[in-house]
Design brief:
By secondary structure, the chain is α/β, with parallel strands linked by helices. It has helices spanning 7-55, 83-94, 115-127, 130-133, 155-166, 188-200, 230-241, and strands spanning 63-70, 73-80, 101-108, 137-142, 145-152, 173-176, 179-180, 209-215, 220-227, 248-255. It folds into 3 domains: 10-109, Alpha-Beta Plaits (2-Layer Sandwich), CATH 3.30.70; 115-180, Histidine-containing Protein, Chain: A (2-Layer Sandwich), CATH 3.30.1340; 188-255, Histidine-containing Protein, Chain: A (2-Layer Sandwich). Helix 5 (155-166) crosses helix 7 (230-241).
Length: 258
């Protein structure tokens, strides 16, 4: 004999199935909404960190600033007086924990300065540093585009010459063709060991956690690890650039503090 469900039982079963289906949809929607809220909270925290970081910068003339964060991608707008300030904003934001990418809509305010005036100021600023008096750095300016040539002892000197030029109002682009005399002259394992020694010396630095240092065949050093402050990550980069034989630095040190 085959048992058959009564009509009342069938209705009850259909009702149970409907309730289960509704519950499943509600749970799915709730889970999706919870995830969306969590993602939004993460983006809000990132945005707050960026605002705190940028507000603490002395002497950075960043106007009409606008900021949005979506899934860790930061879109930042505004205008600055030099490409040096533009690059500094991007560098500060990229070092903040949680930032997965940056869409920069930062513009450099137009300047009426002459090329001769820009060139003269760059040369004067370089001349204030004793190390540039002993190294030949040539400066030419065409329509606000600065070209640096010559040769220096360390990559840090090349980097600083570019930073000095970029900080001058009216500069719209830098072409840094300064040669470094020590590049390619020191075996890479020795360069790598010297970098590690400088960054792990607890008497002078040694404050990067989980530090990992690598070097490629061109002498470019990759830095990874975590730091509590942006200034610490920047100091690690400068110390690395100051090691003879280093041709450049890729700084992926994550900044944990706001």
């Amino acid at each position: 004999m085959i048992a058959r469900a009564s009509r009342g039982s069938e209705s009850s079963l259909r009702a149970v199935f409907r309730l289960a289906a509704v519950a499943a949809v509600v749970a799915l929607c709730y889970g999706t909404a919870s995830t969306a809220r969590a993602d939004q909270q993460d983006d809000d925290r990132i945005k707050l960190r960026i605002q705190v970081r940028l507000s603490g910068q002395v002497g950075m003339d960043f106007r009409d600033a606008g900021l949005s964060v979506t899934d860790g991608i930061v879109t930042i707008r505004g205008n600055v007086g030099s490409i040096g300030n533009r690059d500094k904003v991007i560098r500060l934001v990229s070092g903040i924990v949680g930032v997965d990418g940056i869409v920069s809509q930062i513009t450099v305010r137009p300047s009426r300065r002459s090329d001769a005036g820009i060139q003269e100021e760059i040369i004067d600023r370089l001349d204030l540093r004793p190390r540039f008096r002993d190294n030949v750095v040539n400066v030419t300016v065409t329509s606000g585009v600065v070209r640096l040539t010559g040769d220096v002892e360390r990559s840090l000197d090349r980097y600083d010459a570019g930073e000095i030029a970029a900080s001058v109002e009216g500069v719209v682009e830098i072409t840094n063709e300064i040669a470094v005399r020590t590049e390619g002259t020191i075996p890479l394992p020795i360069v790598l060991e010297r970098v590690r020694s400088v960054l792990t010396n607890t008497l002078t630095f040694g404050v990067i956690r989980d530090l990992d240092v690598q070097i490629d065949q061109a002498g470019v050093v990759l830095l990874e690890g975590t730091a509590q402050r942006q200034a610490t990550a920047e100091t690690a980069e400068r110390l690395t650039l100051g090691v003879p034989g280093v041709s450049g630095v890729i700084n992926r040190i994550e900044v944990l503090g706001s």
